[in-house]
Write a structure and sequence with these properties.
Blueprint lengths: L13 H4 L26 H9 L4 H4 L24 E5 L11 E5 L3 E6 L4 E6 L17 H17 L27
Antiparallel strand pairs: 1-2, 2-3, 3-4
């Protein structure tokens, strides 16, 4: 809290985006194994299904994440090499008042689009791990920006993000469907 002059953990900045994940499962996860693989919360459900033995194609195709079980032995696995993560925050206006933004995180870069100000941010996490210098307009990053924006579009398509979401102003462009209760019709 307070990093980048902000009081919120809803940003794509490293201080908010990174969280430790500690797992223990005697006989399955070797003690002391560490992983640098980028994972996200949407990987938990496929992992639980995999561990429970209900990892049928039908079940696993309902998830956008990946099972973490391949990481249990060594902390590394081909499925997690060069993985890019998509992130979106859309609760503005809202209690926390962080602007609507989305973006991606690769092993080296963080690219983000701030919908409320129509602004792009790019951080080279290798050269600037504190993410203090937005390099989006630096000529030496022009090709990287082009590649990352293409990847951003691909991830939005892969995750079936609706056009115009998370939206720039007013109400959300598309209202998320949170209500999973059966219809009473």
């Amino acid at each position: 809290m307070g990093e980048h002059g902000l009081y919120d953990k809803r940003w794509i900045f490293e201080e908010s985006f990174r969280m430790p994940l500690i797992m223990r499962w005697p006989g399955h996860i070797r003690p002391g194994v560490r992983s640098s693989a980028m994972v996200q919360e949407l990987d938990y459900a496929p992992t639980f299904c995999d561990v429970a033995g209900v990892n049928t194609k039908e079940n696993m195709n309902t998830f956008q994440g990946r099972s973490l079980t391949p990481l249990f032995k060594t902390g590394e696995h081909q499925d997690f090499k060069n993985r890019s993560l998509y992130y979106a925050f859309y609760e503005n206006p809202g209690e926390h008042n962080a602007p609507r933004h989305d973006g991606l995180r690769t092993d080296r870069y963080t690219l983000s689009y701030i919908w409320t100000s129509d602004e792009w941010m790019l951080f080279d996490n290798q050269k600037d791990p504190a993410q203090m210098h937005n390099v989006i307009n630096k000529p030496e990053y022009a090709e990287t920006v082009k590649e990352l924006k293409a990847l951003y579009g691909k991830l939005r398509k892969d995750y079936q993000v609706p056009e115009g979401f998370p939206g720039a102003t007013g109400k959300l462009a598309v209202k998320p469907q949170w209500d999973c209760a059966p219809s009473r019709d």
